[in-house]
From TrEMBL:
Signal peptide: 1-26
Highest rank taxon of the organism: Bacteria
Protein name (database record): Arylsulfatase
Keyword terms, alphabetized: Calcium, Hydrolase, Metal-binding, Signal
GO MF annotation: an example: metal ion binding
One Pfam short name: Sulfatase
Keyword Metal-binding: yes
Presence of keyword DNA-binding: no
Residue ranges occupied by any Sulfatase N-terminal domain in the UniProt entry: 41-402
Amino acid sequence: MLHFFRHRAPAQLCAFVAFSVCCVFALCCSGRAEAQAAKRPNIVFILADDLGYGELGSYGQQKIMTPNLDKLASEGMRFLDHYTGAPVCAPARCTLMTGQHLGHAEIRSNKDSGNGRIYPGQWPITEQVVTIAEVLNEAGYATGGFGKWGLGPSNTTGSPNKQGFDRFYGYNCQRNAHSYYPPFLDSDEREVAVNKYPIPGHDRKPQGPVSADDYRAANYAPDLILNQAVRFLDSNKDKPFFLYLPFVEPHVAMQPPQEWIDRYPEAWDKENGPYRGDNGYLPHPRPRAAYAAMISDLDEHVGTILDRLEQHGLSDNTIVIFTSDNGPTHGGRNPNFHIGGAACTFFESAGGLKGFKGSCDEGGIRVPCIVRWPGKVTPGSENSFPSYFPDWFPTMTELAGAELPEQQLDGVSLVSLIEGESIQRKKPLIWNFNGYGGQVAIRDGKWKAIRKSLLRKTPGPWQLYDLEADPSEANDLAKDHPEIVKRLETAFVNDRSVESDFPMPLYDKQ
């Protein structure tokens, strides 16, 4: 090489050296970039449906078997004060996908699209909003969603394939998800038939014997969804991926595999007998055992995903996040059962908290949350920092080394918290919920203010709770601290926008 240099003119030599240096520098930079990309963690986000704060063994459950999730908690961090973004399905998913709380989110309650179909899909998010899937996809992540979507029908702006997902398989429409043996599932933009003789999600049997087999068909949707999720994981094991798993269990109707039902005591269901469908959804001969079976089946599916990560050697470079979209199923007309026959009182599903799904009380919005990230998260650790769904957008963006979009974001990154450091929040947690009569809640530090019936003729009064001293919200302190109520209400009014599709007249005028 030196001999080659000697026979070059000085100018040519300088140019060649400069070119060579640039090439070496470019190769080094490229190598570093590839190394950094390789270090970016895979992200697996598992979202249970209507799983209560107290329904996992790691959160105090004594009757229901959840060995895989309990193991996940022992290997990771439990969040003790984690909240969904909304107390029902679609708006909770909207806050998760967009990083916006209910005062800014486009979807603020469950609402069908109005397209006239039997399974219409829900009100679509628009093309203006940026989802976390779009951010991660732009950053080079393969993106797959498997489970229940609820943010817009196929071939609309809200379709998962138009919101950043390379692959989607499951229930686009929440109404189709009322049965675990549906006529079809959605595969990207297509409906794919899965049961020739599907089971409708609602029926009653006022008299006579009740048989679980009467409400089963050939293909069980949760297994089909799990299989597609595993295929996605297998296909993308050599590149960074975002695997979003909004599983459907334990949302009613209760149609779990018999093998799980048989593992629970028959004595449980002798007290109230069979559920006959009078609180909606489907009858079941052993409702308590069936409800526990749904959660155990969910746990088994989580275990399948974790095992697959281990088989591919991906566990150490994958952050797994598990939580629930809202609290457990609320009560109905028959006081012996919750909606769909769910046994949430028997299992103390809300973990001693007040309220259930559909309520901004703690039982409706505080949810279990577990994060495992080997080498980053201290095994068996826990934290009490108040966090919620809008936080996951900046968290996952930071994990991926991506850039935040230029849109309203209401959360804070939890990466430092997950790694064992303390973090601060600049503004309160906010819920502006248009369902169940209209509700508002604000949490700032230990204080939580809540107001209900805002869409009714006579709105309810403000309530105020010190959650550090009174997590079950038994002692209303609103009259003792009107100045705190006023401060929290002002914070709410100043941090919300009007959404014409989900009006709240009392505050839209301010």
